[in-house]
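Hi Q.,

Before the meeting this afternoon, I wanted you to have the zinc ion prediction in hand. No need to reply - just skim if you have a minute. The sequence and ligand are here:
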Amino acid sequence: MKVHFWGTRGSLPAAANTLNLQEKMFGVLKGLKGRSFAGDEDIRAFAEKELPFSLAGYYGTNTPCVEITGGTEYVICDAGTGIRDLSRRLASTAGETPHEGPRVFNIFISHLHWDHIQGFPFFMPVYGEGNRIVIHGGHSDMEGALDRQRECANIPLPAKADVSFRRLEPGRYYEVAGFQVLPISQNHPGDSYGYRFEIGGRSVVYSTDSEHQEEGSADESRFVGFFRDADLVIIDAQYPLLDAFSVKENWGHSNNIVAVELGAKAGVRHLILFHNEPTIDDPTLETFLSDTRRYLKIYDPQSTMTVDLAYDGMEIEV
Ligand SMILES: [Zn+2]
Ligand SMILES: [Zn+2]
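Predicted structure with the ligand bound:
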């Protein structure tokens, strides 16, 4: 199974602009200090391995969309603006798809807040006859929300694909595209749902927009069970601890500290901090990641869990 991150910012896109880029270029050029390169490969290796990510990349510009491959059909979590880039990849590889016959896209929606559905009208398979799109989720009004999105005042494009909706019950396993999928209900305004995907003895959890409760709570043991021994957990860690406990309490998101504690308690192999705060710049997010890794060493010195911060284009083989 492979996990590809197409969109990783929370709440709204964080566009890259010329000023961001000029700052990054300034940092790169300043760090060169007369260094010379043997050729193109050498330059690429320098950019990928030696530069800090805050200079070499962006910690996410699109809103949430994650693709999980390894099943018999497409499996996508959320339809934020990242789904447009997935759509472009599908167009560029048309005819090379490993899935036979009419294409089936399973979209697991965490919830219906705008950042998780705003890319749907730009997902080109919606306009292809013969395609089948199944929206899976826990909310009763998924169809109504996507219908309202297509109203004239927003973006009046009629779907040509067969679009259907499948309501899932938390706590029950479903078989979808060869995966065993387990939904869980999460603490978020208007509710949200996380999903655990299992196939061939491997497991990936997608759990965003979830405000976790204090240590020792029933919520904690429910999520430790849900994350138990997972190979990869994508977790909401939008806020630094201080923000989460002050102005942004009850906003429906979690902090990096609770994310690490839950991951370590559950024996997770690889934890990905996700739904990155759109108002925080890349150098600050890089510090946020190193602080989080340092906290894990203090909290559980024996833990072998890897902690990373999601970015658009990140790809992980599980
Ligand atoms: Zn969100
Ligand atoms: Zn939300």
